[in-house]
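Hi,

Apologies if this is the wrong queue. I'm a grad student, and the batch job for Bifunctional hydroxymethylpyrimidine kinase/phosphomethylpyrimidine kinase from Streptomyces coeruleoprunus produced an output file that my downstream script rejects. I'm not sure whether the problem is my script or the file. Here is the sequence I used:
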Amino acid sequence: MTSRTAPPRVLTVAGSDSGGGAGIQADLKTMLALGVHGMSVITAVTAQNSLGVQGAWELPEDAVRAQYRSVVGDIGVQAVKTGMLASAPLVETVAALLAGTDAPAVVDPVGVSKHGDSLLAESALESVRKRLLPVATVATPNLDEVAALTGVRVEREEDLRRAAGAILEYGPRWALIKGGHLAGDAVDLLTDGSEEHWLRAPRHDNRHTHGTGCTLASAIAAGLAKGLTVPDAVRAAKTYVTGAIAAGFALGGGIGPVDHGWRLRA
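Support response: The file is valid. Your script probably expects a header line. Output copied below for reference.
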């Protein structure tokens, strides 16, 4: 019996969400739904549910480094996605690992959870700016993360271009500024400083959107692992996430997750 060829491989470097809506759990569900093999490096463990984050514990840098090298050295990767890195030492550890890996990197500079809980120490912001963003193929900050990293506050659609320029100054090849918190349609701007791609999707009134950012970044990484260009990977990811948001469901007493498996049941 001949063995089947392995699907494209994507590595997520992020924190664990015990409620299953975001973080490592969202990443792996997204990767499965999009037909790639997901692998993980856990950077932190959270006690988290639909109401918020009740606790978070970082893993030692040695543990993060060992997980990463174990996977990349044996299995290999076609794309890497980063999420919750929590502290400056973890950011710098992961940035150094990415710099030595020949694969595109999607950096989601996670600052706060959907519930407003801080997931990145303020002291780590400079490390994100100077170490992590320069090794990113695509950086995917939301508007709060843009403000924290650059001081640029986006209040209307026209401000997205200025926000993208401020992020690009730190060195990522592409910036995807997520404008989902603006009024009107959900609009994002993807640019490398020379070409622009505006991505629009109808806004859904579904409040169950936990894990949206993690899911989008993982979907982009999946597309890159399959060989798509950055613009095509982002467009495909936007389509997938729009469907996941529309299908989001209630879970627990607070904000439920997007439905990572909606396409499997469509």
